[in-house]
């Protein structure tokens, strides 16, 4: 158990520091480590934990707490929570004043501009991991792509699509149709 807690603490701290702009940029590495390397959770659990953390109020990286709980119970959840929050909080506290004083220097401007394409690439990798982890049938893929198009091209709040998808899945299960099974 101590080995798991140590691994969890180190990885969550690293992800915390890596996650400029939110944990979504570290999602592919979190998936690789927790699902593939350590086998703490399954693909389905990973997607469910991520979706639940997005639906709950608070920081979107709190799905690490769910992963910690799955890997090592309540101690794992506590270690993940502290390792997620402390490093980035300390860095923010120490760095915010310095960055404010030096924000107009050319090299700080270059670093800020260079983080944009890196973040975009990491978010695209995370999107790929989430879709690959969950979507196993043609109707599921089509529903995901249609939802993404609706969100992108309209002003409809994504919560309505989540409600619609949930209702569609429940209807499928109630009818025994299995529309979204592989």
From TrEMBL:
Subcellular location field: Cell membrane
What is the membrane topology noted in the UniProt record heading this document? Multi-pass membrane protein
| A matching Pfam family | Chromate_transp
The residues that cross the membrane are: 44-67, 74-94, 114-131, 138-154, 160-180
- Can you tell which superkingdom this protein's organism belongs to? Bacteria
Q: Which keywords fit this entry according to its UniProt record? A: Cell membrane, Membrane, Transmembrane, Transmembrane helix
The family line of this record is: Belongs to the chromate ion transporter (CHR) (TC 2.A.51) family.
Spell out the protein name for this chain: Chromate transporter
Organism phylogeny: Bacteria, Pseudomonadati, Pseudomonadota, Gammaproteobacteria, Pseudomonadales
């Amino acid at each position: 158990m101590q080995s798991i807690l140590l691994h969890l603490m180190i990885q969550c701290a690293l992800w915390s520091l890596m996650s400029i702009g939110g944990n979504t940029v570290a999602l592919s590495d979190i998936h690789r480590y927790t699902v593939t390397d350590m086998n703490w959770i399954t693909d389905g659990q990973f997607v469910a934990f991520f979706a639940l953390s997005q639906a709950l109020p608070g920081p979107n990286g709190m799905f690490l707490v769910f992963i910690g709980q799955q890997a090592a119970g309540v101690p794992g959840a506590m270690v993940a929570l502290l390792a997620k929050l402390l490093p980035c909080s300390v860095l923010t506290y120490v760095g915010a004043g310095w960055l404010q004083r030096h924000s107009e220097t050319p090299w700080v401007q270059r670093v800020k501009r260079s983080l944009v394409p890196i973040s975009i690439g990491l978010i695209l990798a995370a999107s790929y991991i989430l879709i690959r982890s969950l979507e196993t049938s043609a109707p599921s893929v089509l529903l995901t792509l249609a939802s993404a198009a609706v969100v992108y091209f309209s002003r409809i709040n994504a919560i309505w699509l989540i409600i619609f998808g949930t209702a569609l899945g429940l209807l499928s299960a109630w009818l025994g149709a299995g529309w979204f099974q592989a």
